[in-house]
Amino acid sequence: MELIPTSGGRIPNGRMPIVGGHERDHNVKLYHAVATVYARGGIVRVPGKTAPHLSGCNFAWGGIERVFRSNYEILKVIPTMTTLE
């Protein structure tokens, strides 16, 4: 698995994001995302969720749900290589 940059809820073409859950109606997939927060003189990477309908990365910070619309990452599958014998 690897993290790739994105924004606006977009799933980059040709990428296979990791499904982390579903909305309550189970019809919309949610994907793992990571927001980078600059706080108290340091950098904190915070797990969150994303999907095209969210238009960003939603994550918990300071007791409320926040949204970064740009400059976050999504977790994706790295295709495995196979060898032919």
TrEMBL record:
Domain of life from the UniProt record: Eukaryota
Protein name: Uncharacterized protein
Species in which this protein is naturally found: Lentinula edodes (Shiitake mushroom)
